[in-house]
User: Which sequence fits this backbone?
């Protein structure tokens, strides 16, 4: 039993850095100015850790990182609401990485319904 607990502790310690890297924060995104995009949804990925949608705006493909699924559902933005072809308006923080067309959404509006999803 003692060895099993030791092994579990070692595995947990080794996995912690990987988990930290997998969950990205807000530091790589514009902290003061929000970007607004409005376009039909090209693709939807309603999977953990965050839902994502793709939009094409002015010929450029954008990745929109949404909230964790539990928060999306609590705000009424379920998988059945986010459909390919539906026009969506998102407002969020743009990636600071040059040439990267990505925003982390703070709010989303679709079908006359809007939701704050950052918090």
Assistant:
């Amino acid at each position: 039993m003692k060895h099993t607990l030791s092994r579990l502790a070692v595995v947990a310690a080794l996995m912690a850095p990987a988990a930290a890297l997998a969950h990205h924060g807000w530091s790589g995104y514009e902290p003061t100015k929000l970007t607004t995009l409005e376009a039909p949804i090209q693709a939807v990925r309603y999977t953990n850790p965050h839902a994502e949608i793709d939009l094409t705006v002015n010929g450029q493909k954008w990745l929109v990182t949404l909230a964790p699924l539990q928060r999306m559902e609590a705000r009424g933005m379920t998988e059945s609401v986010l459909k390919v072809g539906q026009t969506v308006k998102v407002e969020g923080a743009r990636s600071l990485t040059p040439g990267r067309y990505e925003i982390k959404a703070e709010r989303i509006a679709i079908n006359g319904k809007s939701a704050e999803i950052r918090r």
About this structure: Strands lie at 29-46, 51-57, 60-65, 87-95, 102-110, 113-116. The longest strand covers residues 29-46. The chain has one domain: 28-116. Helices lie at 2-22, 69-74.
